[in-house]
């Protein structure tokens, strides 16, 4: 299986694949942070397709950048 966010060129995949999340470990953790701390949960209030929801996560990753992602991951 492949990470659902594997094509993100700003915040690249890292860690083993987490099947229940559909992402690598790095993107799975960042997805959970996005949902909980950055109002990413709002994408679930709509009837938009899954591709639209994924694009919102990718957009956030691109705004976040690799350096800030590492800061979040280190806690």
Can you walk me through this structure?
The chain is mainly alpha-helical and 75 residues long. It has one domain. It has 2 helices and 2 strands. It has a two-stranded antiparallel sheet. The longest helix is centred in the last third of the chain and has 25 residues. It is globular. It starts with 16 loop residues before the first strand and ends with a helix. The model has no long low-confidence stretch (mean pLDDT 91).
Chain-wise SSE layout:
Layout lengths: L16 E2 L4 E2 H13 L12 H25 L1
Helix pairs in contact: 1-2
Question: What is shown here, in short?
Answer:
The chain contains two helices and two strands, in the order ββαα. With 75 residues, it is mainly α.
Main features:
75 residues, mainly alpha, two-stranded antiparallel ribbon
N- and C-termini, Cα separation:
28 Å
Low-confidence region ranges: none
Strand order of the largest sheet: 1-2
Q: What's the overall geometry?
A: globular
Q: Got a strand count?
A: 2
Output mean pLDDT: 91
Number of helices: 2
The largest pleated sheet is described as: 2 strands, antiparallel
Radius of gyration: 12 Å
DSSP strand (E) fraction? 5-15%
Question: Helix/strand-derived class?
Answer: mainly alpha
Q: Give the tally of structural domains.
A: 1
Please bin the fraction of helical residues: 40-55%
């Amino acid at each position: 299986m492949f990470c659902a966010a594997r094509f993100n060129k700003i915040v690249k995949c890292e860690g083993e694949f987490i099947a229940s999340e559909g992402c690598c470990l790095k993107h799975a953790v960042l997805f959970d942070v996005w949902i909980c701390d950055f109002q990413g949960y709002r994408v679930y209030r709509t009837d938009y397709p899954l591709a639209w929801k994924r694009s919102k996560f990718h957009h956030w990753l691109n705004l976040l950048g690799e350096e800030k992602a590492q800061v979040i991951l280190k806690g």
